[in-house]
């Protein structure tokens, strides 16, 4: 289990790098990429945390987070193209 | 033995995730960052989820393992779609390529 705690800290460091890019990013698509990457990393983090605790309902959080992250990224990409949400 | 396989899968996934995040910081423009971040992090997180599923099945946590496999399939399906949409949106909204880039097939296709 010690390995999994180390893995959680490594994933936190990767999330911190994504937050740096969200802060620095010169254009809007940079921030969108960083938000998408951060969502995927948080899914992995939640999954490892569920394994260390031995509780399966944390995986519901991971699945919901993956769904909402995908929908949010698609909405931001539509906004970047400058089109409405209905075409 | 099965725990060692799970730990190896999680370690491979962690290496890919960390390298993807470093690429997100280090690479010069949006398109390079997109390919580093999205491909590495998709493969890394899928590997982590499969490793967690293997470990959960070994410990008789069947619900956790099945949910991890569902989550892995979902990420594997949706993350490339999201990356494609972001790249197309960035190109249409007028973000320039890095000056070291040599080819822009999408622009050539638009100019035809």
Q: How much helicity do the residues of chain B have?
A: over 70%
Round the mean pLDDT of chain A to the nearest integer and report it. 88
Number of strands of chain B: 0
Ends apart, CA distance between termini of chain B = 58 Å
How does this structure look, described?
The complex is a heterodimer of chains A (87) and B (112). Chain A is mainly alpha-helical and 87 residues long. Chain A has a domain at 26-81. Chain A has helices at 2-24, 28-53, 58-81. The longest helix of chain A is centred in the middle third of the chain and has 26 residues, at 28-53. Chain A is flat, with a radius of gyration of 15 Å. Chain B is mainly alpha-helical and 112 residues long. The longest helix of chain B has 31 residues, at 62-92. Chain B is elongated. The model of chain B has no long low-confidence stretch (mean pLDDT 89).
How does the SSE layout of this entry go?
The complex is a heterodimer of chains A (87) and B (112).
Chain A: H1 2-24, H2 28-53, H3 58-81
Helix pairs in contact in A: 1-2, 2-3
Chain B: H1 2-26, H2 30-58, H3 62-92, H4 105-111
Helix pairs in contact in B: 1-2, 2-3
Name the descriptors:
heterodimer, A: mainly alpha, 3 helices, 84% helix, 0% strand, flat, B: 112 residues, mainly alpha
In short:
The complex is a heterodimer of chains A (87) and B (112). Chain A is an all-alpha fold and 87 residues long.
């Amino acid at each position: 289990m010690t390995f999994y705690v180390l893995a959680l800290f490594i994933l936190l460091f990767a999330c911190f790098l994504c937050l740096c890019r969200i802060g620095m990013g010169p254009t809007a698509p940079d921030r969108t990429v960083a938000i998408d990457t951060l969502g995927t990393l948080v899914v992995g983090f939640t999954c490892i945390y569920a394994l260390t605790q031995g509780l399966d309902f944390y995986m519901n959080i991971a699945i919901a987070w993956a769904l909402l992250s995908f929908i949010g990224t698609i909405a931001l990409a539509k906004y970047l193209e400058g089109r409405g949400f209905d075409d | 033995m099965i725990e060692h396989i799970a730990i190896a899968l999680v370690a491979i996934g962690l290496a890919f995730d960390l390298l993807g995040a470093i690429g997100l910081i280090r690479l010069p423009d949006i398109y390079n960052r997109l390919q580093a971040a999205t491909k590495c992090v998709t493969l890394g997180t899928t590997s982590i989820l499969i490793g967690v599923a293997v470990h959960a099945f070994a410990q008789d946590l069947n619900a956790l393992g099945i949910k991890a496999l569902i989550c892995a399939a979902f990420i594997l399906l949706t993350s490339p779609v999201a990356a494609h949409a972001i790249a197309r949106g960035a190109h249409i909204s007028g973000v320039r390529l890095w000056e070291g880039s040599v080819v822009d097939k999408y622009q050539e296709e638009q100019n035809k």
